[in-house]
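Chapter review: from sequence to fold.
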Amino acid sequence: MPRSLDHRATSPHPAAAVYAAWVDRDLLEKQLQHMGGPGAGVTAYEPTPGGVRYTLRHGIPAEHLPQVVTSFIPGGDLKIDRTEEWKDAGDGRYDGTGTVKVVGTPATARSVMRIADVDGGSEIRIRAEVTVKVPFIGAKIEDAVAGQIEQLLAAETEFTLSQIP
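The token string follows.
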């Protein structure tokens, strides 16, 4: 059964400023250099009608992972490819979708994201579902991967919001 997670954060900045920082290629590169781990980088970036689509690679060293996860990862380090597509939905709202693939494993995630104006600033909301198709221990791996994704989202959000002037 998939593991769900719900990440929320608020900012005193309007949604337009948060969105601009969130999808800025230079800032994405800076963020990945700061916290992306082994092999991190922006692997694709392209404008789309009304928005942007990009793919990020993150790396998590094996020593930061539980043994149940490292037993399924070739080479020991976890490599995560994350693709996000964002669009301006109008009225101070930006909607996104995302997919995550854990390279070399049967682990995936899908997300629905929103940055929206709220009283006093804006809110970032990311709902994700992690799936690991491994009999018997898939749920343990889902919990471990979801935990890593939650930590990553919190760190990325904090970093990105700290970069808004």
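Two observations follow directly from the output. Residues 107 and 132 are 4 Å apart (CA to CA). The first strand starts at residue 3 and ends at 11.
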